Amino acid sequence: HSADDRTGARTDGAATSSALSPPGAVELAGTPECFTTAPCALGPLAPGSSRSFTATVGFATAGTSTITALVTTGVADSDASNNSASVGLVVKQPVIRLLQPVAEPGSVVLAVGQDFPPGAAVTLAWDVGVNVRPATLTVAADGTIRATQILIFRRDQLGPRNLVATATTEGLFAPVQDPMMVAPRTVAPPADFASRS
């Protein structure tokens, strides 16, 4: 899971410092300013001015987290009540799902997805067997992947496999998958088979 977190500081003239604390974060992409456990120096800011910071934060699990920004000053502060701000952040786990658990070689199955980052570019591919060159899909504004046809080749490998959804942007989310069994069509015996001796 990842999200772009943005915070800022606004001052009435005092020199300030700031730090961001996103509980549950497991990784910060790059080395963004003021997004570590230690505060960073903002330096003097003119009255009414502001400064913003942006970083990509990776989270270990889905759920709701709270992002908190805090500013402090080494000079007299007439109003300490406005030195911090918090905002809730919802972290979602993308899900890819095949609409049937079993299929035979030569068939086309449908896959859908939900809770993906809106606008993200995603590829779908089997982890075993033959793949058509995977097309890049664009996630809808509501975080879904519309029903997409996935081919199983006629002479393809039998047995279990997974359909894997991968972001084309590294680190946007970890690959997610859904299992399927590829099995040959069951051949029914002749109607009079049971009466034969």
What does this structure look like?
This protein is mainly beta. The protein contains no helices and 15 strands. It has strands spanning 2-10, 16-21, 25-28, 40-43, 50-59, 63-73, 84-91, 95-98, 102-103, 108-114, 121-126, 136-138, 145-151, 159-167, 176-182. A five-stranded mixed β-sheet has the order 9-15-14-11-12, with no helix packed on it. The chain has a four-stranded antiparallel β-sheet with strand order 4-2-6-7, with no helix packed on it. A three-stranded antiparallel β-sheet has the order 1-5-3, with no helix packed on it. It is rod-shaped, with a radius of gyration of 26 Å. The termini are far apart.
Low-confidence stretches: 2-21
Helix content: under 10%
Mean pLDDT: 77
The percentage of residues in β strands lies in: over 45%
Q: In total, how many beta strands?
A: 15
Strand arrangement across the biggest beta sheet: 9-15-14-11-12
Task: Describe the oligomeric state of these chains in a short phrase.
Answer: single chain
Structural class, judged by helices and strands?
A: mainly beta
| Total DSSP helices | 0
Largest sheet: 5 strands, mixed
Rounded to the nearest angstrom, the distance between the terminal CA atoms is: 63 Å
What's the alpha carbon Rg, rounded to whole Å? Answer: 26 Å
Q: H/E element string?
A: EEEEEEEEEEEEEEE
Taken from the alpha-carbon principal axes, the silhouette is: rod-shaped
